Amino acid sequence: MIGPAAANAAAADLVIAIGNRLRGDDGVGPFLVEHLQMPAVQIRTVHQLTPDLAPELVGAERVLFVDAWQAPAGARPCLRPLQPSGDGTTVESHRLEPAQLLQVAELLFGGVVAAQELLVPAFAFAHGEQFSAELRRQLPAARRLLHDWLQQGGGQRRCMS
Amino acid sequence: MTRTVLIDPVTRIEGHAKITLHLDEGGHLVDARFHVVEYRGFEKFCEGRPFTEMAGITARICGICPVSHLLAAAKTGDKLLAVTIPPAAARLRRLLNLAQLTQSHALSFFHLSSPDFLLGWESDPAKRNVFGLMAADPDLARAGIRLRQFGQQVLELLGGRKIHSAWAVPGGVRTPLSAEAKAWILDRLPEARATVRLALDLYKRLLDGPLQREQRVFGDFPSLFLGLVGEGGRWEHIDGTIRLRASDGTIVADGLSEDDYHAFLGEAVEPWSYLKFPYYRPLGYPEGMYRVGPLARLNVCDSIGTPWADAELADLRSRSGRVATSSFAYHHARLVEIVACLEAIEELVNDPELMTGRVRSRAALNRNEAVGVSEAPRGTLFHHYVVDDDGLIQKVNLIIATGQNNLAMNRTVAQIAREFITEPVGADATIPEPLLNRVEAGIRCFDPCLSCSTHAAGQMPLRLELRAADGTLLAERCRG
Q1: How many CB atoms lie within 10 A of CB B204?
Q2: Fewer CB within a 10 Å sphere, N or C end of chain B?
Q3: Helix, strand, or coil here: B206?
Q4: Hey, which residues does B7 pair with through a beta bridge?
């Protein structure tokens, strides 16, 4: 939960986990950050990205989006840099892509932030809180990438092999 | 041979729908239908659950207005417990609903509809969105985003999360207002006020200029209007009684209790939509068409009760009449309601009882049947539960705002299509994008939430079909 102080002042690092814990593998982002407690890191858990998240990026030095990924066969968890962009197949008022949210933050609020996304290959999105066996096998690698980002600052594209 | 135009999916609304325009053998429009093509069945799968879970379950119907279901379910739970909730809890629930109305109206006006007003009905559809708005008027886009953020943040400060909070419970609420939350709200209120002032000034200039035709043809017809009113006929959003007012200003029914909704509301069904068609029972179906939502609330009330909002209500009435009959006036009504909400929020957060008082009454189950009501951003919401002696749900009926506007949405679409299809449509018809957008915009006046009204999931693209008299599909245009 964001407190009133946090509502006014962003932390240095912001982690935005995207997904629904009730829709199988889609909940992997919120699951990975569920027990994170670091004083300089603000955690946000959302079902989808909306424009009103943009002001919260202002003042953050780094932001990490953690999301489920309908990946090609054989893909592994991946940490990759993001640039602001207004492009996209669709622009919806309450379902932005991370790059679109970065664009809103930069253009309207002056929020220039080093951004990356941690993508975790996901396989099953049916109702329920259980992850698929395939996703469970990806969790250790995803945790390592998250840990690396938190500890080192990331910056480069890295995919687990 | 009669024919049909199909718009599928409808965009910039909450859910998934299509529109069909039916032509006669001469190529003239004879009917328009707004089809809701998704289904979830919450009323069925809630059966067997404890009534205490209903607030949490039904809030999941929607990600935009979960607070409406939370409050209606909590109020229904109050009645099953047969308790009077503490005064502080009643005021805290009001505060929650005011924040929700603010954030939802801000989303509808700034994010969904203002691109049409500011960029033009015939502008590039790829840019007619929040990014286009950012390019055309960054100050307005920024202010709109911050206003929605304000409402969302108040929800989180009260309920612990922006979406799907379980803060309101049968008997009251879980926690009082914190000093930190009060300070944050008071700090941000001036900016929120400035934003809605900016939007009202802009919107009135547009009403006086390029939007005059839309006011006339976007669903301007007589109907009943239904909403809650408080003491003295004041604007109300969670308590009070139900009033129906006709377009000529006559109060058709007043002081109605939600407990008796079966006596005055019927629910018709049509084979071509999952969305039901509620109607005012004494007038029958479909003559009993009525509208709910921000425009209805302003039409049924006598006053709002706060100075700026009452001034804005007077201005709206000076432009649109004592009862505004154009569905396009929903947009103006949303802005007036944001003013009302901000003034009421300021009054409430300065009430010391919200921070110190008892906030929950506890009791065992004392009744087996109850109906709760609240005003959702899109209109009046009814929850009706029947439970067994263990408090397990036996039957649920949810009457949702968007459903109640269903007949009026169909009529609005038909009126717009008649205005903009000026020539007989030939067999080789195509659907021009500006027609598609105006028909969609007619639906967007109501800010429908199809996730709620069918209790359904998913995005809300739009499809428009043009069909001949024998049902042959002549043309279609899809978006989303």
Answers
A1: 17
A2: N
A3: helix
A4: B19, B477
Residue A136: domain span:
4-159
> Per-residue pLDDT tens for A55-100?
999 989 999 999 999 988 899 999 999 999 876 545 566 678 999 9
CATH number of the domain encompassing residue A150: 3.40.50.1450
Torsion of CA B172, B375, B373, B175, to 10 degrees: -10
Q: Is the peptide bond before A77 cis (omega within 30 degrees of 0)?
A: no
Contact between A91 and B163 using a beta-carbon 8 Å cutoff? no
Radius of gyration of chain B (CA): 22
Residue type, A65: F
pLDDT at A7: 46
Q: Strand locations in B347-389, DSSP E?
A: 369-376, 379-387
Contacts of B459 in chain A (CB under 8 A): 92, 95
Contact at CB, B156 and A1, closer than 8 angstroms: yes
- The number of residues in chain A equals 161
Hey, which residues does B159 pair with through a beta bridge? Answer: none
Our count of domains for chain A comes to 1
A150: part of which helix (H) or strand (E)?
A: helix A133-152
Average pLDDT per block of 10 residues along chain B, 480 residues long = 60 64 82 71 87 88 81 97 97 97 94 88 80 90 95 93 83 96 97 97 95 92 98 97 98 98 93 86 96 98 98 97 97 98 97 91 97 96 96 93 90 89 71 79 83 42 72 72
